[in-house]
Amino acid sequence: MDDAAASTGSSFYWPLRLVPVAEREAFATVYAWCKRVDDLADGPEHGAETLFAWRTWLSGHGGHRLAADDAFLAFRLERVIAEYRIDRAWLDALLDGMTMDLAGEMRAPTTEALLGYCQRVAGMPGRMCLAILGWRGPSANAFADAAGIAVQLTNILRDVEEDGGRGRLYIPREALDSAAIDAADPAIVLRDARFGKAWLAIALLAEARFVHADTLLPSDMRRTVRPALAMLNIYRALLRELRRRGWRSHAPRLVLPRWRRIWIALSTLVFKA
Questions:
Q1: Which of 17, 194, 217, 248 is 20 to 30 Å from the Cα of 23, by its Cα?
Q2: pTM for this one?
Q3: 142, part of any domain
Q4: Is 139 exposed, middle or buried (0-12, 13-18, 19+ CB in 10 A)?
Q5: Per DSSP, what are the bridge partners of residue 169?
Q6: Domains in the chain, number
Q7: Neighbours of 131 (CB within 10 A)
Q8: 3-state helix, strand, coil in the chain (%, to 5)
């Protein structure tokens, strides 16, 4: 399943190579499930129906509703949940976030709603990964949530036009108001000459969340969570490049070169322990 991460060019792939072999399959299973439900939220036919099937499976009822491929993934996921004592409520919360997308709620939401969404769709996978690495409890959850929000905000900044094509606008109402943009339709907002100001406000929020995550990581846990730190450092570098380029309409989707992602992962292993 880690081949799936490689084939998509995911920033998850190289941090995954830092995971001990014994835990690597568990990480890959979590990644595969998160990607599966994320793809459903992007609006395929019967997406809501399949998300509901996953929710009933989580509750212990209705696993038979899953398609054959999903049933096999559920089997693997069930083993990970049991072996690493993963809270099923985390998976349920992630499904809540995906449902927000399908329900059309993510169009100029409030900042509070945006942060709650980011916590669900990125913080919850972070909690799962930290549990696999052996760090659990309130402090681990707080770090995962802060780091997840920072990562998801970075994704939002990079993909704002792609999301706009799906009718979504994750930039919150408060940021749009600060730029004097009185609209919520992505087709209108993204053409507004003042949008760069609203975009920058979210870039600054993402930077603040990265700093906040730093303060929540005990020094004695750094070695344990090196794969998570590698991913965090890759996204931090991506945010710096986004800030350097600034908002540009119809700009190519920014992706860090493969060599740079490898270097960041290796430098996290060698210098950040």
A1: 217
A2: 0.91
A3: yes
A4: middle
A5: 107
A6: 1
A7: 24
A8: 70, 0, 30
Q: Would you list the DSSP string of 228-270?
A: HHHHHHHHHHHHHHHHHH---TTPPPP---HHHHHHHHHHHHH
Amino acid at 232: L
Report the number of secondary-structure helices (H) and strands (E) in the chain: 15, 0
Number of Cβ within a 10 Å radius of residue 161: 14
Tokens of 39: 């793809």
Q: Please name the residue ranges forming H helices in 180-222.
A: 186-189, 195-215
Instruction: Name residues whose C-beta falls within 8 Å of residue 45's C-beta, 6 or more positions apart in sequence.
Output: none
Task: Tell me, yes or no, whether 273 lies in a domain.
Answer: no
**What is the chain's pLDDT, residue by residue, as a tens digit (273 residues)?**
444 444 444 566 666 776 778 788 999 999 999 999 999 888 666 788 899 999 999 988 666 688 888 999 999 999 999 999 999 999 999 999 999 999 889 999 999 999 999 999 999 999 999 999 999 999 999 999 999 999 999 999 999 999 999 999 999 999 999 999 999 999 999 999 999 999 999 999 999 999 999 999 999 999 889 888 989 999 999 999 999 999 999 999 999 998 998 898 888 877 654
Q: Measure the CA–CA gap between 265 and 273, rounded to whole angstroms.
A: 12
> Is residue 4 in a domain?
no
